[in-house]
## 1
Amino acid sequence: MTDAPLAITVTAFGAPDQLELRPHDPGPPKAGEVRIAVEIAGIGYVDVLVGKGDYQLKPDLPFVLGSECAGRVEAVGEGVDPALIGKRVCGAGFIGAFGQAVNFPARAVTELPPSMSFEEASVFRVSYGTAYHALVQRGRLQPGETLLVLGAGGAIGVAAIQIGKALGAHVIASASSVEKRALALSTGADAAIDALAPEWREAVKAANGGRPVDVVVDPVGGGATEPAFRSLGWNGRLLVIGFAGGGIARLPVNLALLKGASLVGVDVRQFGEHEPDVQAANMRALFALHAEGRLRPPIARVYPLADYVEALRAAFSGQVAGRILLRMRPDPA
């Protein structure tokens, strides 16, 4: 029996049941890094795509899966303030988060406020950081504008609803199930419509008093993008965040001309690399909103690490309303 920390490891791309839980010690942190003893990890749809080899970026094998976690700093590398040791933090990266011990660049780690639990923190930085960057820097959402959120029952969708309301927008949520629409309304949406409705565009317009919308958050792609773009008004903005619907949309570009509208890409990973100071300011703003009680990630279920296959399947199914977490260490006796 080994005492080495465990990690969900991808040795060959495949479905969740083909991934391995094996010993993995990342070693001491390098210069500019921190080592985190992980308590909770948050699972996203993209994590499973990466493990299957179906994401647009493919890491070199083998690698530790996972993009987001929370825990305590247990060591720091050269150039990192040692006062961080012992602090409660959340961390994020493209891969590497689903381990009991992980090393992250210090710039990808944020100290937690007292108001935030490890559970909330494990699903906060990526989804809320993405939604805030999308709406503030990329979408320039203004108070009084109407925000349409596609995939409103998912991680980005719920974050966008809560942030949109905090920024003073009228928020319309589009989701595919009764449970997800109920979640969207409970997290602040002003209206919720059926994403599968045959007269979907008419439902969007009706939810906005007969008017087109100003901004669309689109983490879905596929067949959802074009009707959403057509629902924009003059100077509207559609924010391309992902393709959870399984396909990359093809959009008639004359629509942008006719509406004076913009198709805007949102890549929070590159944003953090190119504008780290702005990203840090965004996180401070998000923590302040959380402390005010305006942002609350909905947690659907917390699985023990041993049940990682079931947890990954649940997160990938698209059927769960709320976030799926992994408890990386046993509860203390």
Note: Residues 127-269 form a domain with the Rossmann fold fold (CATH 3.40.50.720).
## 2
Amino acid sequence: MSTPMHNIHFIRCQGFCALLTLCAVLMGCATERPYEETLGKRGWTLILHPAKTNPQDQMAYAQQLLREGNKKGALKQFKALSVFWTGAPEAAPAQYEYAKLLEERGNLFKAFDEYQYLIEHYTGAFPFDDVLQRQFNIAFHLMTTKKGKFFLFPGFSAPERGVPLFEKIVANAPEWTRAPEAQYLIGQAYELSGQYELAVVAYMASEYRYPHSAFAEKSAFGKTQSLYLLAQENPNDDQARDEAWAAITLFQNTYPKSEFSPTIQEYRKTIFRQRARAAYNLAYYYDRIAKKPKAALIAYENLVKLFPDSDWTGLAQVRLEALKITVENTHDKNP
């Protein structure tokens, strides 16, 4: 026979169980509540509207359109999802699909920017390496493909188009396996577009950021070649010529067995002749124009010493002998 105290305990247990059941029901209801956007829409959307009322159904609808081959419709609906429900779990996959469809349609600049938005706003919610590779492919295509093609007009090269894109890739993932190549291609894009000073800076960044990569030697060659071309563009610039000579010497010392050695050797011969010619011009100026025999004597002596096998060494030696006599006679007259 149960006691009053036993009945009280029984009633308390029943009440506690009922309370647990009520909490479970309430929690279940909470998990089933529809998604509510708290971050707000992304940008202006005057004509863009989602077909469904929640991100889950919107995602399913966009995917269905894609499976049915309606890529234009799928593109709009993926975009609508990422715009109207920016904080939903489906937003990142929708943004990814939207960018891929833009890329497939050939809207490459826009696709690159949408991949970039994915990287900047949805870290860890998408296949990072795949997105980087897609950005790389877009940048390389824009760098190497002519722009402005129309009917019979072949278009023109614009490699500099790839520069800001490769810069973003390196900034996105400086340790990525293709980051050294991306940095190298920045230098190459500048070089191909004739912006040699900027090419030198980019190639140097590649050398020092990634000294052990497969692109370190290529970057060193690109830097040297750019400095050489700068010297050819500015034949009267002694500093440009000296910087090219220093880069050539450094490259030969660092990469003595390089595949670029034959080209570097030709550059060296050209710069050597130009430096010798500049040295002769300086001596000639002191000799014939400024009429300063002592200064001319020193300049000719330097030429013979530094460039013993140049085309101007013979002329310098002839003048040296005459100037020695002139300087000695002047010294005798002015003891």
Note: Residues 5-11, 22-32, 150-155 have pLDDT under 50 and may be disordered.
## 3
Amino acid sequence: MAAALTVLVTGGAGYVGSFTVRALQQAGHEVVVFDNLRQGHRSAVCVPLVVGELIDREAVATCFRRWRFDAVIHLAAYTSVRESVTDPNKYVVHNVGGTIVLLEACLRHDVPYLVFSSSSEVYGEARYLPLDEAHPTEPTNPYGATKLQVEHYLRWYDAAYGLRSISLRYFNAAGAALDGSMGEDHRPEEHLIPNAIRGALGLQAFRLTSPVVATPDGTTIRDYVHVLDLAEAHVLALEALRQGHPTDVINLGSGVGYSTRQIIELVQELTGVRFPVERGEARPGEPPIKYASYAKAERVLGWRPRYGIEEIIASAVRWHTRFPHGYPD
């Protein structure tokens, strides 16, 4: 077994981050979380937690002085496509500017590896399907643009300084711990599956925010990947870097697309509740259809998704049933 590492996880109190922390622990690594708790939850963290903003150089420097990190997994970011369209400056300042501060600290403290949480939003409108890593990158919203800009910086930082990285281009993270003990808790929540489940449980009215698009049922088609599978991929990416893999970008998806209407119907079927569907304000900046090729992830990381869409939704139902109001903080 490879030696344990001390790993900094930025955004480790958030949805994917909290699951990644546990996957790292299960692999035997020591973990520290840096998070501003604006989207994350203190009660989701089971390791040392530093509360701060990545754009705060002194807060980041203090964290790096306190621990000697062998690697960084960088998930901290603002992630709302809708908000990025109305407030792009926030996304540039925090998603790009915060990353630069983090990279400066990595260089100063000789951290050799970084795994970056990127996004399928870097692709924009699909020219062909499934989307592979060679597909042109033409983001249609500022959130995706910030993720792509960081990917560019990471390549340059490797060429100039030898900081190697793997950028993981997630498709739609979904699901919860299989026992319902951890899950998705954004405030406000913009994602389809949790909002549909909350509609089924009578916690809120469900509003359809998919724009009308040219797909068979007129709603957007997306690729959903279980958060447990995503967490595992971060551990595998870190190990690939340790084994000498060069700076790279890798898709994480299931290879299958489901329309918004199909997801609503699956939630209704699995919960047994035919909740009403109201039309809400359409989300801007949304490509009509996206689903991934994960062939490269399988080839480079030995990764493939373990959980299908019904398991994703069923686990999320357990979480929202056990914790209808999310984490207690």
Note: The chain has a mean pLDDT of 96.
## 4
Amino acid sequence: MLNYILRRLFVAVFLLLGVAIVSWIVIQLPPGDFATTYETFLMSQGGITQEEARERADKLREQLGLDQPQWKQFYDWITGIVTQGKFGYSFAYRRDVGELIKERLGYTLILALAAHSISTVVGIVVGIYVAQRKYSLSDNIASVIAFVLASVPRFWIALVIIYMLVFTFNQHHITSFFSPEYVLAPWSWAKVGDFIRHTWPVVFIAGLGGVARNMRVMRGNLLDVLGQQYVTTARSKGLEEGRVINRHAVPNALHPIVAYQGTVLPYMLQGEMEAAIVIGIPTLGPLFYQSLVNQDIYISGGLLFIYAALIVLGNLISDLSLSILDPRIRYT
């Protein structure tokens, strides 16, 4: 097992390097750079001529190193990550990218993990329930709800929730983690409640698609398992139905769910990103969006690199979890 983990980590190094190269190429595809955005800003807001704006943009481009060849910029960026743990310098925020990500990563992971946990538990429980009632009224209702949850755009749900919070429930502060009186206050149960009151829409929206998917996957897998011979044998021996389901059928039906966990966290981060951008919660989502708009390449590249690392780590954890869940699975 240890050799398998070491091999996976060794391969992950080259995989992350490949992801970094592709991410760098993708974020360089739009025409222009941050200095071009700055030039446009000067002409629209600064009231200066195009020649003056271009001259200032060229000076800024030279100052930030954007006039260097692309391979040189990428080499300096990836070398800083490997040797110093630094993701570069943000042109728009004029701060270290690592500090910007660190400030928001904790809250982002809390919201994404909360959405993931709720969607997994609810989806599995509902999937087990409806699988035992194939084609019943509850099964059909759950299927329709799952289809709707998987189809409705997250941004639209976020807009509806914003409207309800503002005009129905008169909530005045929806674009922050806390109300003004709790921003600098020490942690307490009241502050935790205020945090939940501000962030539940993001968790709810990010988890909707996960509930639908987990329910459908669990239902389908459990129905397949219930039709196998060893389940029929267990029933013929007189075992209680609940024991047959929970002890014999469900563990084997969980394999695809566990394997899916390797990619679910970036998926939840994506759902959190869409909701946070619309609602305005200061997580990694709005930061990533603004970096793409401003062509702040080091923030965009750093976040894509982190997402890739989460997928690699998640896949490794899911593979190890499968070996624990099913003793028949062994890695050499």
Note: The chain has a mean pLDDT of 80.
